[in-house]
Every structure is written in structure tokens, then in C-alpha cells.
Amino acid sequence: MDYSDLNNTEKYADVEERIRYVKQINQLSDPTQPFSHKMVFNKQSLELKMNFLKATNIKNLEREEIFHLFKKNMMESYKNCPWGWQERKKRSEMFHCDARYIIVRYLANNELAAFIHFRFDLEDSIEVLYLYEIQLKPEVRSRGLGKYLMELIEIIAFHHNMKKVVLTVLKNEEKVVQFYMSQNYEIESYSPKNSFYYILSKRNHRLTNV
Ligand SMILES: CC(C)(COP(=O)(O)OP(=O)(O)OC[C@H]1O[C@@H](n2cnc3c(N)ncnc32)[C@H](O)[C@@H]1OP(=O)(O)O)[C@@H](O)C(=O)NCCC(=O)NCCS
Asked: Does 153 sit in the ligand 1 pocket, CB within 6 Å?
């Protein structure tokens, strides 16, 4: 179906249907469940396990661990861009009731190694998995874990019929931009032209009506 061929009433009905669908996916207790066999990473002398959690189910201690990793990785970059470092605002974004996490821990001692924050949402009236954060501790980087987590999130998104995986990246984080480009992400048509960030996305080619 070509969205532009619909009349206004049909468009509203279609958007209503999409809103209902995303709400339904958000109600899943564990959207990673069909891929439980992929919730491990045993490569490059890393032995890691992964766990899905809704932000509302993350206990305070674990929230602090997650926020600490985010802060260590990103505070300087935020300070150096127009967003600035706004800790309270960032905390409420990260632990919003719609936030979903994959938390990566060392098998041996349960220490945090990395996490992903994502949400199922409508972006420009399209069902998307929005990747809010992918954050790895320095010692687990450049060993394929970032790529593995991106592939995992895409599998989860497309299994649940999301039409795209979308993310925002700071333009001056050139290495991170290169990382996403190496994973075949493209600059979105609605990514603001003269801004300090890009909106990147990867399409679900199985669903052709985007
Ligand atoms: C960005 C990040 C997620 C990448 O994960 P990673 O595990 O280090 O990357 P990988 O080892 O999986 O690399 C995957 C691919 O990306 C490429 N790549 C990774 N880092 C790169 C870099 N700095 N520059 C260019 N390419 C890079 C690799 O060459 C690799 O390609 P290949 O599979 O063809 O060899 C990770 O480094 C990180 O968490 N950084 C700090 C937090 C951050 O900036 N997060 C993003 C916020 S938007």
C-alpha cells in the first residue's frame, strides 16, 4: 500500500492502526524472547551474557551502574554540543517507562560491560525501533560486540515488524558515525541539514511500503 494514495480519513485510520500496533509491541513482557539463544557473546576472549529489562523494572543500583557508564562515555561530548550536560533530563529520558534495555554483563563476575537503550515508537508516522543508546565500556570495544548488538537489535526490530531502526548521532563523533556507516546506516531524509547531529536509519527491506 502506498501511503500517499490514501485519502485523509484512510490516513488517520492507518496511523491509528500503527499506534495500536506499537502499543501492543510495547506491552510484550520480553520482545527479545524469540532470540534468547542470541543473548550471549563468546568471542575475542569475551564471555558475556545479555538480559532484557524494561526501565521500570530496573532497580536503583543497576540504574546507577547504567547511568555511570553513560556519563563516563558521553558527558564530554554532550558538554561540547548544544545539548549540554543536563543530568536530570537525561536520567528521566533513560528511565522513562517506554525505555527498553539489553544489559550486557561478564559471565564470570556479573560486572556491567555494555548496554543498549531502545524503544518501539512511531517516528514520522512509521513504526520504528529507536536506538537511544549503545554504550560499551572501553575494555570491550573493537572486538565486534558493538556490531553484534546492532545486528541483534535489527533482528528484534524487524521480527516485530518495525519498518526501520532509527538513531541519532553527533556529527563530531566521527568514529561513531563511521561505525554506523560500516553497519549500512544511512542519513534519513528528515535528518536536519545544518544541525550538529544526524538522524540515521536502516530500513526493513521485507516491508516495502515505507
Ligand atoms: C561505538 C561503539 C558502540 C562501537 O562498538 P565496538 O564494539 O567498539 O565496534 P565493533 O568492534 O563491533 O566494530 C564493528 C565495525 O565497525 C567498525 N568500527 C568500529 N569502531 C570504529 C571506528 N572508531 N572507526 C571506524 N570504524 C569503526 C569496525 O571496523 C568494524 O567493522 P568490521 O566488522 O568490518 O571490522 C563502541 O565503541 C562504544 O560504545 N563507544 C562509546 C559509546 C558511544 O559513542 N556510543 C554511541 C553513541 S551514539
From this structure: no
Residue 144 beta carbon below 6 angstroms from any ligand 1 atom: yes
pTM of this structure: 0.93
- Write out pLDDT tens, residues 130-175: 999 999 999 999 999 999 999 999 999 999 999 999 999 999 999 9
In this structure, CATH architecture of domain 3-168: 3-Layer(aba) Sandwich (3.40)
Atom of ligand 1 nearest to the CA of 141: 8
Q: Is the Cβ atom of 136 under 6 angstroms away from ligand 1?
A: yes
Sequence ranges of the domains in the chain: 3-168
Ligand 1 neighbourhood includes 31 CB (under 6 angstroms):
no
Residue nearest to atom 10 of ligand 1 (CA): 144
- Supply the DSSP string of 159-177, one letter for each residue: HTT-SEEEEEEETT-HHHH
